Amino acid sequence: MTPDSQLVTRIAPSPNFEARLGNMRPNMLMLHYTGMTCAEKAIMWLSAPESKVSCHYVIDEAGVITQLVPETMRAWHAGVANWANDVDINSHSIGIEVHNGGHDHGYPDFPEPQMAAVEALCRDILARYRIEPARVLAHSDVAPRRKRDPGEKFDWARLARAGIGHWVEPAPPGGDDGLGCSDTGNAVMRLHRQLRAYGYWIEAHGFYDEHTEIIVTAFQRHFRPALVNGRADASTIETLDRLIASRTRVY
Fold first, then answer.
1. Which of 32, 50, 80, 166 could hold 134 in an S-S bridge, CB 3.0 to 4.6 Å?
2. Catalytic positions, written as ranges
3. Same domain, 142 and 210
4. For 75-113, how does the pLDDT look when each residue is reduced to its tens digit (9 = 90+)?
């Protein structure tokens, strides 16, 4: 396998891939954390036939970039997931696993050499594909019922300053309770419509149920990480509104 990026240090070919649906060109960039205690073990698992999972790239704590699957191929990193009208996220996306033990293993900070490599690789990929900023996403955005990665410690603001992804300065939490489980009415209906307009998989029915809380939590992990509690307070709603108002397309 020939590396797709000059930033790649190592190749660890995974057999876990196939052709993209319709041989489509990637139009989404997906960021994960490995959720394992050791980057080498993560690479071994992602390249083992029995795992039935893979990704295109792994970035370890030192910033070393390993490629496992060619970008032209459909890696198996997203699982059951959806975004906007897309249900085959693997066919649409390039997947980057950023090594971090995650919430189940102490959830350490992402070190500077690693974030510098994430930034460089994302910029390199975006230079080759016309990916809409709002389609640079977290695994938790597309699979919020199952996934929390890369989580609230991941520095999305840094990436945005480098021209990667969609971001607005989050409105600071103000201490209000906001909307929460069992609330109903027009305010909840509007929240549902705004979340769905941005791309989250949710129906607008006006009842703040468990699924609404899960979606709001995923939104907060990515876009309002100062307070992740699943309640749609004024800060969360204002940040969502700002994102929708500022969204632009590049293709």
1. 166
2. 97
3. no
4. 999 999 999 999 999 999 999 999 999 999 999 999 999
